[in-house]
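Incident log, support desk, overnight shift.

02:14 A customer reports that sequence design results differ from what the structure should imply. Their input is reproduced verbatim below. On-call engineer (initials T.W.) acknowledged and began investigating.
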């Protein structure tokens, strides 16, 4: 899967997206250190332990580079940046039951806006799955000749 590039200085506004989520009763926020074990367990349950490993790295940064979506005290999704490489967005995921509600786009934009605040001009989305989603929500473009990218030679197990 190829990588994509995002111009962080040209992102759509974040606040209207967050307000839409709040109107649905969903909070998009940066996770806190005491939630680390819960977030990693959730990622392992709904996705892959390798994604939990990547996410764990972000808890070593200040500010923490992971955003979560929460509804009525239940986690719906997450988005990370600066996990496997600096300037990289991901991993990210939303529980199947919460898809189609704008949660993934809100998490994406929250993390990308934060990357911009942290001083990045561009963000890289590594090994993308839904390229059309990233293009639509954040204006991401494919990076030519980016396969296998930083994930080449990754241990399998």
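02:41 Re-run completed on a clean worker. Output:
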């Amino acid at each position: 899967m190829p990588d994509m590039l995002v111009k962080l200085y040209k992102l759509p506004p974040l606040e209207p997206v967050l307000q839409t989520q709040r109107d649905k009763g969903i909070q998009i926020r940066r996770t806190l250190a005491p939630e680390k074990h819960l977030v990693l367990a959730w990622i392992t349950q709904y996705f892959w332990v390798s994604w939990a490993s990547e996410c764990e790295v972000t808890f070593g940064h200040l500010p923490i580079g992971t955003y979560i979506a929460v509804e009525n005290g239940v986690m719906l999704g997450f988005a990370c940046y600066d996990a496997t490489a600096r300037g990289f967005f991901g991993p990210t995921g939303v529980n199947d039951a919460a898809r189609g509600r704008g949660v993934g786009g809100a998490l994406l934009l929250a993390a990308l806006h934060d990357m911009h605040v942290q001083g990045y001009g561009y963000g890289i989305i590594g090994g993308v799955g839904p390229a059309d989603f990233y293009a639509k929500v954040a204006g991401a473009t494919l990076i030519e000749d980016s396969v296998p990218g930083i994930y080449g030679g990754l241990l399998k197990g």
